[in-house]
Specification:
This protein is mainly β. The protein contains no helices and 8 strands. The strands form 2 sheets. The chain has a 4-stranded antiparallel sheet, with no helix packed on it. A 4-stranded mixed sheet has the order 2-7-8-4, with no helix packed on it.
Length: 90
């Protein structure tokens, strides 16, 4: 005879590691070419002059300089204009 009762299966025992998303360099900070400025899923923030967007939507610095954030309006797929943050390196 068993010493413990039947426990059944547990359903809530899986947990994935965090993806370390978010802003890595804030406005006014200096960056070098290729540095990661923002890691994001989708294009929440847009890349402006002096930056480039990689395949997983990470924004990198395309040149040495200082990071600047500003609000701009971008048109979405339906034609509406939505406010978004643009990241640039000056």
């Amino acid at each position: 005879m068993s010493k413990t009762k039947a426990g059944g299966t547990s359903k809530n025992n899986r947990d994935s590691q965090g993806q370390r998303l978010g802003v890595k360099v804030f406005g006014g900070e200096a960056v070098k070419t290729g540095d990661v400025i923002i890691r994001q899923v989708g294009m929440n923030k847009r890349s402006g002059p002096g930056t480039f967007l990689s395949r997983n939507y990470t924004i990198h610095a395309a040149k040495d300089g200082v990071v600047k954030y500003q609000k701009r309006r971008f048109k979405n797929f339906g034609g509406r204009s939505m406010p978004r943050t643009e990241v640039s390196v000056e």
